[in-house]
Amino acid sequence: MTTLSDCLTEIAVIFPEMTDPDTKVEAIPLTDGFSNRVYLICWRGVSRLVLRIPGTEETIFYIDRAVERIILRHAVSAGLSPDVVWYNASGCMASRFVPQPSLAWTVRHNDNAIRRIASILKQVHALPAKGRYYSVFEVIQQYLNSIANRLSGARFINDEAHLESRLTLQKEYDYLVLIFHQLRAPEQLLPRVLCHNDINPKNLLMDDADLWVIDWEYAGIGDPLFDLAVVARSHNLDTDQQKHLLYAYDESLFDRVSQKRIKEAMQIYMCAYGVREMVWMLLKYMTTSDQTFWMAYQDFKCSARLNPFYDSL
């Protein structure tokens, strides 16, 4: 595993002033990084870089760091993401610090903010279509398979000390399978494009002047309506705001596809997004034993605002 010290040593090759005996380099942990360890790197009293050290197993979580790097290069060139100044083979990455903050999970947008988000989504979808196909339904199934494999592993089968934990996790797995099987992938209404697939409030840096998209590790070729649905759901848009988002994204959209079909697809994708988040959190807990993810899973599951199947509890 690459350590913080390893990263700083490599970054100092690019910024030799970091090694000056009179220079104090600070690495301040940022709480927004849920999947990864993220640090604000400062020296000489100035915020300089944001460092990401991956904390997620790539294969299990459907991440391809090589593809991410290619897509990120296009995003930076298009002015959609802050400049990347350093990257290594392990997926560690340092980006130029920008002052725009990420958004709160409880964010509420005005019409102008929705138009800006729709515009940057349109730009994301215009990037070169690189990477593998991303279907949220296939990803959820892969995550569920990984959970099932761990539940049947020797740690749970042969050790009575883990029996209670196994029964609890099995119950949660059964619940997630039950709600997942209530979903059916919508018809493909729009051409497939390069999608980010996770533009939640923490992956947008935004103020009145600038807007950036970060964390491209789940980007791939997919349905643009899924990206729009993630924004609609995770940014707490009401029905009128969702319609405004779609019009701002493509004002001729409803001339080509009926509003009813778009609305149905969006609703399915919003539900799928919620299920993906819950399955991800449970799998993350099982791969790390970090109680933070267990509590996050329970909070999400027991929230009527977040869990699209809350009424079935």
Automatic annotation (TrEMBL):
Lineage top rank: taxon: Bacteria
Keyword tags: Kinase, Transferase
GO cellular component entries: cytoplasm
GO BP annotations listed: phosphatidylethanolamine biosynthetic process
Name the UniProt record assigns to this protein: Choline kinase family protein
Domain called Aminoglycoside phosphotransferase: residue spans: 28-252
Gene Ontology terms, MF aspect: ethanolamine kinase activity
CDD domains: ChoK-like (cd05151)
InterPro entries membership: Aminoglycoside_PTrfase, Kinase-like_dom_sf
Residue spans crossing the bilayer: none
Keyword Transferase: yes
